[in-house]
Amino acid sequence: MNWSEFFSMGGYAFYVWGSYAIALVVMGGEVILLRQRKKALLARVNNISHSSESEQT
Amino acid sequence: MKIYKYASPANFYPLAGKLIPWFAVPAAILFVVGLYIGFFVAPTDFQQGDAYRIIFIHVPAAWMGMFLYILMAAYAGIGWAFNARLSSMMASSLAITGAMFTFLSLATGSLWGKPTWGTWWVWDARMTSTLILMFLYIGFISLQAAIDDPRRADRAGAVLALVGVINVPIIYFSVQWWNTLHQGATIRLLSKPTMAPPMVAAMLIMLAACWLYSIAVVLIRLRCIILEREQAAGRVVEFAV
């Protein structure tokens, strides 16, 4: 199989690969942002639970 | 086993955590399989050449945009009618992923329209109603963000979501009701598809992958929303520590 022919997509490379690039960016972006949100949130929750423990003792 | 106990956010949180990998891993596998069939097995289209391969992401994205909206409206409605907090949180979680897929369907549609129709955008019924769908998602998200009290935000969002459901059948039937530039449905429930079998297979596998991806991502976000709300309400969130 000829790879340069494959990547040229019969002259539609910009449109085809552009579509999949956007898909990768928005779906990958969603996962990355969500991971950051969760990390920050868990750090805060852990912080609060530790500080309340130290207050009790 | 009492299934009702999982209606409580604190009980659902660990269950959701256990479920996520069961959707995320198959989603990744199906994306690879679907793209492999779409690019290496499915033949070149005799009319559109290779430009048609955008279909494997465009159609699943467009369907997800509509499915997730109906699901969001249903969860928002249940949360409102039965005062079920978890159900409303699910609606908020679905909104972001639904908006993302709707944006993706508009963007890939635009990239497909340029080489095949000669234009990035036309104000045709299918595209205009899909743009309205995106505005409904954005409206839902902004409305909820603008109201401080979470339960009031849920109710306001539910009204908007339920009224907006009318737009989904309009999108679906727009290609039949109006004379549009957008092509008609290639896949129908009760008739044979008009595409080659590998094309149909790739599209359906990509759709399944998008479903599994959505479930995984929505559950991860739901867990974040549960934590944020329980914490803001001053409740102990030891289930997350």
Describe the structure.
The complex is a heterodimer of chains A (57) and B (241). With 57 residues, chain A is mainly α. Chain A has 2 helices and no strands. Chain A is rod-shaped and about 60 Å long. Chain A starts with a helix and ends with a helix. Chain B is an all-alpha fold and 241 residues long. In chain B, 73% of the residues lie in helices and 0% in strands. Chain B contains 7 helices and no strands. The longest helix of chain B has 36 residues, at 197-232. Chain B is globular and about 60 Å long. The two termini of chain B are 25 Å apart. Chain A binds chain B through residues 6, 9-12, 15-16, 18-20, 22-23, 26-27, 30-31, 34, 37-38, 41-42, 44-46, 48-49, and chain B through 39, 44, 49-51, 53-54, 57-58, 61, 96-97, 100, 103-104, 107-108, 111-112, 114-115, 213, 217, 220-221, 223-224, 227-228, 231, 237-238, 240-241.
Descriptive terms for the model:
heterodimer, A: 57 residues, mainly alpha, B: 241 residues, 73% helix, 0% strand, globular
